[in-house]
Amino acid sequence: MIAIEEAGAERRTAPGTAVGRIALSARGVRKSFSGRAGKSVHAVDDVSLEVRRGEIYGLLGANGSGKSTLIRVFSTLLEADAGDVRVFGLDVRADERAVQRLINRVSVEASFFKKLSAMENLVYAGRLYGVAAAEVRDRARGILKRLGVAEDRLHEPLEKLSRGMQQKVAIARAFLTSPMLLLLDEPTTGLDIRSKREVQTFVRDLREQHDATIVLTTHDLDEAERLSDRIGVIHSGRLVAEGSAEELKERHGARDLEEAFMSLTGRRLEEADKGDDEARP
Amino acid sequence: MIELRAQGGLAYAFVERQVALMRRYWLWELVWVIYSITTSLSVAYIGLAQPIITGTETDAATTSRFVLYLLVGTIAWRFLGIVFEDIAELIAWERWEGTIEHTFMAPVPRITQLLGMAVGTIVRASVISVAVLFAVMLFIPVDLSKANAVSAFALLGVGTLAFIGLGIASACFPLMWTEKGLQMAYIVQAVVLLVSGVYYPTTVLPGALQAISVISPATYVIEGMRRALIDGADIGSLWPLAWPALLIGLVSIPLGLRLFLAAEHHAKRTGRLKRSG
Predict the structure, then answer these.
(1) ipTM strictly over 0.90?
(2) Consecutive H or E run containing B80
(3) Using one digit for the tens of pLDDT, what is the confidence trace for A185-202?
């Protein structure tokens, strides 16, 4: 069994002492699913972590490592079998509606009504969070302009936009509601290099300009290092290490994050991705 | 009051979405309207052909009454069927679009979402049903000289409540069984069609099916609408048919909502609240 590493003295003093500074806390979270032939698969296995307000926390792991399951638990879409998850001190189960008002999520697939235009989708999303249509339109134009989406594309059916454009609209949708905690589940997967960089710059800028806390899952080492203040490495459902990219490299005598990941999991990230993809049902 | 207005705003999101989807899928809606017109006409022509089929002499008034009898059944069923299907397909539809996670993690109480959906689907069902009614009247002479439209609409309103409840309860199936759940909802709809006297009086059914027809809201609604549109019955005289349908509506909506919340909880525990199930 691989022990969870602690990172930094500040990290150790945070729990319970300054609740207002903790955006997200998870303690002993477990989640299993019934697999083939009734065999139980541990998707998340005793994960504990804390994300400070204003922080970008990267969850780094291969496909099938449990990152997305954890994000789904944080976003109230999945109930953990055990453990406690709090968003700004609110329990995700007991205070579900209040938690939902504080969070938003961008998933790996941009989930939209395909025939509706970007603007129609955004107005709908805004209304769900109590944002007036006129305000949505104003803010959406601003955000999408920054992301390089031309205004005339906003009224085309979403299905006519490229994958990169759709993902940018998904990011705009999440930010429209001014979430205190933003869950980005592999937001740049499948994007071309230029779109990826635009999204990464936008995420960084938003954190600097707004009071947003971001949890980002990725299996892109460069992205994790580029965006995250701290990185949690997740492997086979377990959080096996936590710290800044520099701390992780230093702790494992690694030249780069890839080496640190290999030292922690015994596999290169690419190999782990391939292996897990092949092992999936 | 402020909270009520806020919930109204949230519910409106679903109404607006439904109307926008209708506009964007207009070609499919057109196909559906044409299909509805042709099936309604086919049923009405059975009425017109009744003297030929049975080989009996029938006067024009009797034939006209028979045609109206069938048309009331088919158009009322079309309306109630759309209400039921749109709500029962709610989960399957959101899965197909890929939006289920986004919608279900939004801070919207489920009752607000479902009632917003219901209003949206009533708009859709009304547009389609009115289009069918006018199209059918172009082809077939329909005698509405005695019709009491107010009574008929009142009955339809009561029936709509009951079908909203049935739809909400049936929307649980796709939450519980991702692959076959929707088919189960369609089976519910098919059984209701069989036992409710949509095209014939329920008295012709075998005893077991007649017993089931007692708990179907459509049994009362369609019979009441026939009396209102064919014989001009007023709302007072239709009360014996209205109250059972109303009662089923008042029971089925909260019961359906409770079942839906339980199914949603189950889906969250088992990981089924996602696009691929």
Answers:
(1) no
(2) helix B60-88
(3) 998 887 888 888 888 888
